[in-house]
Design goal:
CATH topology of the largest domain: Rossmann fold
Oligomer: single chain
Shape: globular
CATH class of the largest domain: Alpha Beta
Number of domains: 2
Strand order of the largest sheet: 3-2-1-4-5-6
Order of helices and strands: EHHEEHEHEHEHHEHEHEHEHEHEHH
């Protein structure tokens, strides 16, 4: 009997990228299986051109669309369902959609009501990478793997579109392109814009004789910050936020990076999945650490606030995070190599 498997994750961009290893390893384990993903409309673009995904179901999480999603699930007659981020909404959608064997992360009352089997993360005591925790659900249905490499796929036509986008916005294709994403959407501790401004100045000074371009991609950038960037009078800084509108646009933009720099946030995981060199800043706390959310490709560098700094400067409950001075600009500069 064919395995028909639904993998569900309806949260943020970086989180959704963490299930790309699951669909690959399911297909490699069960080549004749049918694999579908359920995610939000904007993050569904993560799975475009993915050869391991047979169909994509989207849920905008509105009250009105609940039963529409149930109908789509029911139509595909899934034998197995993996609810990677447990939500009551998705649990009941899978239940009413007739998914037979269902697994979710953790244990909740609605586990029992909707006949899910829980998969414990053991309160993160045995800390490992988020992609590895996600893979634990696939292991429950017979997948045996330690390959948790995240990945995205881009068509040849899209590669040409990405080149065209850079050319039309004045970015020289032959330059060393440093993408800097200053925002995090409050998903991870981050430097302030003031520190990013100093950092960009230092890059310009250190590599003034090199053919570099600095590309800014964060929508959260303030007018004040952008004005200060403009006042640097450096004609190789490009703000592409008005061009990188959708998740797919962002993927195509980052695909052209020679180096990507940010805190631990969704665009960093895009860079990782595209096998781009990245320098990513991490908090020391378990759930924000490099061990849990670090870049997986061997080109990248994970910089983490030290335990000593964290214990000395942050509050005991870690709610008051002093991340700003936990990683110094010079540390990051030392890992930028331009040939």
């Amino acid at each position: 009997m064919q395995k028909r498997i639904l993998v569900v994750r309806t949260d943020r961009l970086g989180d959704v990228i963490m299930i790309t290893p699951i669909v690959r390893e399911i297909k490699k384990t069960f080549p004749n299986s049918y694999v579908s993903v359920l995610t939000r409309p904007q993050t569904s673009e993560v799975f475009k051109y993915n050869p391991y995904v047979d169909s994509i179901i989207t849920d905008d999480l509105s009250k009105e669309s609940f039963w529409d999603v149930v109908v789509k699930i029911k139509e595909q007659k899934f034998t197995h369902g993996l609810l990677v981020l447990p939500t009551e909404r998705a649990a009941f959608q899978m239940f009413f959609g007739g998914v037979r064997k269902k697994y979710m992360t953790g244990f909740r009352l609605y586990n029992l009501i909707t006949f899910f089997r829980g998969v414990s993360r053991k309160k993160y005591r045995d800390l490992k990478h988020e992609a590895d925790y996600c893979m634990d659900l696939a292991r429950k249905i017979g997948v045996k793997t330690n390959n948790i490499k995240v990945e995205l796929f881009i068509s040849e036509e899209e590669k040409m579109k990405a080149d065209k986008m850079l050319i039309e916005n004045g970015v020289p294709l032959d330059s060393f392109k440093i993408f800097i994403h200053t925002g995090s959407g409050n998903s991870a501790p981050n430097w302030s814009e003031d520190k990013y401004l100093i950092f960009i100045k230092e890059i310009i000074n250190k590599f003034k004789d090199k053919n570099i371009s600095i590309i800014l991609t964060a929508r959260e950038m303030t007018e004040k910050f952008l004005l200060e960037i403009k006042n640097l009078n450096y004609n190789r800084i490009f703000n592409l936020t008005n061009v990188l509108i959708t998740v797919r646009d962002l993927i195509l933009g980052i695909s052209k990076a020679d180096l990507f720099i940010s805190s631990s946030t969704g665009p960093a995981h895009i860079a990782d999945a595209l096998d781009k060199k990245a320098i990513v800043l991490h908090c020391h706390r378990n759930v924000s650490s490099a061990k849990h959310w670090g870049m997986l490709n061997d080109k990248s560098v994970n910089l983490e606030v030290s335990e000593d700094y964290c214990e000395t400067n942050c509050s005991k409950d870690k709610k008051d995070c002093k991340f700003e001075n936990g990683i110094q600009i010079e540390e990051v500069l030392n890992y930028i190599n331009i040939n």
